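anyone seen this seq b4? input:
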Amino acid sequence: MDIIASAIRNPALLCEHRVPHNITMLVENRVADSSIAKLLRTNSRVFQKCEMLNLVEELKNLGFNPSKTTFGVALEAKLTVNKTLWKEKFDAFKKWEWSDEDAHEAFRKKPHCMLVSINKINLVMSFWVNQLGWDVLALAKGPSVLSNSLEKSIIPRASVVQFLLKKGLRKKDASLTCPFVVSEQSIEELKDLGINPSRISFGIALKAKLTVSKTLWKEKVNAFKKWGWSDEDVREAFKKMPHCMLASIDKINLVMSFWVNQLGWDALALVKGPAIFSNSLDKRIIPRASVVQFLLKKGLRKKDASLTYPFVVSEQLFLDMFIKPFKEDSSYLLKLYEEKLSLAQTRDKTSMS
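predicted toks r here
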């Protein structure tokens, strides 16, 4: 439908003998309709080029998926940037210490980078290296920064990142480019949830928003809801511990199943302690659960005490708080705990052999 609508806007284009042929060729190669339609709207003349099939094959060999939006952008770049200018842009990147492979990798990650002017490349690179003092190779891993406005996006966000780094509020090994590629809408959504931009959790929340597609996000929300959570519960858990949306659906279901079906505990308790979803089921959750179950059964832990707290404290603190204080039972609890840990290690060795 997108292709037809775009063709109707420019019916004379279809009279060119190569145009219908190239459109058909793109459809047969499973190029997304939206990508074809966008090319028809913005660069219709490229459909008259005889080398389009060769370029499609070249991009497929580079690893581009025709059904993805990036394929359309890469095709536009290949069709509109002539060989001389393409080489000049590569040379501009190499002037800033990128290798040919760095430039190729950046193009594969974000083909928009080859649609950026040489002047823009040099301006962004100069600011990044000379004013910020940051590693230029970071941009090869996050080349979408090159498409951003220097004045409206890169400079303002860089000032925030510099402050966070200086204050130790952002890890030195965290991605330098991540804060520059997230949309303003995503940032506002996180701020509306009450996540503080100065906290490390904000960076984790941004990572979740950037790396989990909308479809997968919805599937994860549905996985939580299957165990009795509401949409509000999911939002609250994400606000408390954004890591929970980075857990796989399998991990969500495994933890929930153990918590509800084997332990008989309330799934809603995990809304208040969603950090558990980042823990190993075999190496932490199961061993510690055996201790907590024993304490509850013996009346050594209050029934209204937090169920999740024992699972999020450090190893030493867990021993000091939940095993050592109970002198009559401490030997048994330690043995029980170590047996479960040993079983997890045995499983690890078995799976590796």
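The two ends are 54 Å apart (CA to CA). The chain has four domains: 1-80, 81-172, 182-271, 279-347. kinda curious what u guys think
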